[in-house]
Amino acid sequence: MTKPDFTNLTNLARVRLGAVVVYATDDFFADKARLIELQSPVFIDGKYDDHGKWMDGWESRRKRSQGHDFAVIKLGRSGIISGFEVDTSHFTGHFPPFASIEVANSSTEIPDDNEWHELVGKTALQGNSQHYFVTNNTEIWTHVRLHIYPDGGVARLRVYGQVHMDWHKFDKSKTIDLAALEYGGRAIYANDTHFGVPENLIAPGGGINMGDGWETCRRLERATDPDYWTKAHDFAILALARKGMIERVVIDTAYFKGNFPDRVSVQAANLSGLPDEEIIKQSKDWPDLLGEQKLAADCEHEYETEIKALGPITHIRLNIYPDGGLSRLRLFGKIAD
Predict the structure, then answer these.
(1) Strands 234-252 and 328-335
(2) Among 97, 96, 133, which residue's Cα sits nearest to residue 118?
(3) What is the pLDDT of residue 231?
(4) Among 20, 136, 185, 207, which residue has the fewest nearby CB atoms (within 10 Å)?
(5) Per the omega criterion (within 30 degrees of 0), is the bond before 322 cis?
(6) Are residue 155 and residue 10 in the same domain, yes or no?
(7) CA dihedral for 322, 328, 333, 337, sign (positive or negative)
(8) What span, in angstroms and rounded, lies between the C-alpha atoms of 147 and 99?
(9) Section 12-28 average pLDDT
(10) Looking at residues 202-217, what average pLDDT do you find?
(11) Domain encompassing residue 288
């Protein structure tokens, strides 16, 4: 199944953003916290615990009374929700037949019943499948409540949308990471995501291992062209959280020791109102913000004097030569509007 466009937005229920499953009516078979884990769900044949078969997700016991189960997720950042993904991977004979989704904007850990608003009505689910639900809503939400009818297991819930920031109250003299996920930075595209997605580059905190970054596969040209590493390259495109002036760039190759890129460069542009498809198409012609720089294994690279004076920018294209992996990208500066 082709993923809908809204899955390119930020997962507001990402644990690294601070999201947490604050309540579930029942999680006897599988801990509610697994519902929002970043990694894709796995199945481990023959793995059992004290409650039965170990499953990678949230699973309630078989209900023997009236009612149904539900879980409440406090989002890592409040935001506008564009769509949901309900993933029942590996749940074949114990997935819920139906689900619905409500949202709330609340300052409490668990919103009151009268604070909830339904965005996805009661809908049939299939086992071992991904289900996508688009929403047409522009309000700001802080919590999500997933209802399953009557019981069963769900591997993952993703909540895709746009991080909300009240920029009118923000101190414009403050230097911040303008690409940071927690401020609303967004990965738009990468030509290769074989081992990791570019959203990891702008996630909070340092990388925790080699899987917590953006890594491309080895380019096939290496078999036929001994100088391939001087020619072709991979790239990713990111939108800043807010238009700004870049003062310092940090590129971190933590944990990438035998597979870091040989070189890196950053292009940039000041754009507004263009669809992502047009931004991707134009990106190869953007001017350099940071010219080609050599990289080393497992360390932070910091650039200040090397940054070109391009003025305010809204988007960047990160080029790695020819391929490989990076842990984090930080673009420090001040907002420009």
Answers:
(1) antiparallel
(2) 133
(3) 74
(4) 136
(5) yes
(6) yes
(7) positive
(8) 5
(9) 96
(10) 94
(11) 171-335
